[in-house]
Write a structure and sequence with these properties.
- With 227 residues, the chain is α/β, with parallel strands linked by helices.
- The protein is 50% helix and 14% strand.
- Helix 2 packs antiparallel against helix 3 and helix 3 (75-88) packs parallel to helix 6 (123-140).
- The chain starts with 12 loop residues before the first strand and ends in a 5-residue tail after the last helix.
């Protein structure tokens, strides 16, 4: 496949996004299971690919704090590591989509929009950064555009409890930063037509995974992305 060559897609790209601990992995895998039961050809990818690409390994080092804390790493520079990881997997995703496989992505470039954009202090700077990121990833790197982003909305107070005692990275341990991330996710979701917010809590408690999965399917069927 020629470098950066545009392809004719035969299947959608579905992206799950949300703050740390919001259940992205659980919901993306439940969707994959549903697609398999429905005899819909599919493929799954989780970004960053920590162990499967040199870029992903660099992201892991960043998240472990080897390059400094959250505020020490410039969002533009940090985004290059994540973008490199997605670029290195672009051709595989294009093959899946061109071959008629519905692709389910556990995080995509929208994670950078929120996590890196949250490092910037004002709306103007955030908008400038998001435009730069889209120009880089969709324009320069030509990664496939998503058909829908499912934003799993969970308040930070709840997601922190869900993370429990697991080892946390420089993003997860900073509650003030995580609140900024969720706020930016909310703003982006409200302004983008291909985003859908899925409320995952009720009265401060997380909903059962299958109940959230049902909401996800309702959105995808209403959008005519899955039958």
């Amino acid at each position: 496949m020629a470098k950066g060559k545009l392809i004719r897609r035969k299947a959608p790209l579905i992206v799950f996004e949300g703050a740390d601990g919001s259940g992205k992995t659980t919901q993306s895998k439940l969707l994959v299971s549903h697609l398999e039961k429905s005899k819909i050809r599919n493929a799954y990818v989780s970004f960053p690919r920590y162990e499967n690409s040199m870029w992903g390994q660099m992201v892991k080092r960043y998240l472990l704090g080897e390059f400094g804390g959250v505020d020490d790493v410039d969002p533009y520079f940090g985004s290059m590591l994540y973008a490199g990881d997605r670029l290195s997997f672009r051709n595989e995703m294009n093959k899946w989509l061109a071959g008629g496989r519905t692709v389910v992505a556990n995080r995509y470039m929208q994670s950078n929009m929120a996590h890196m954009g949250a490092k910037l202090d004002n709306l103007s700077a955030q908008n400038k950064y998001i435009k730069w990121l889209e120009d880089l990833e969709y324009g320069e790197n030509k990664i496939p555009k998503e058909d829908i982003v499912l934003f799993l909305h969970v308040p930070v107070s709840v997601s922190k409890k869900l993370m429990g005692g697991r080892s946390v990275d420089i993003h997860e341990k900073n509650l003030g930063y995580l609140r900024k991330v969720v706020t930016l996710y909310e703003r982006i979701a409200d302004s983008r037509k291909n985003w859908e917010t899925v409320e995952c809590t009720n009265n401060g408690k997380i909903l059962p995974p299958l109940e959230i999965h049902k909401k996800v399917l309702e959105v995808l069927k209403r959008r005519k992305i899955v039958a």
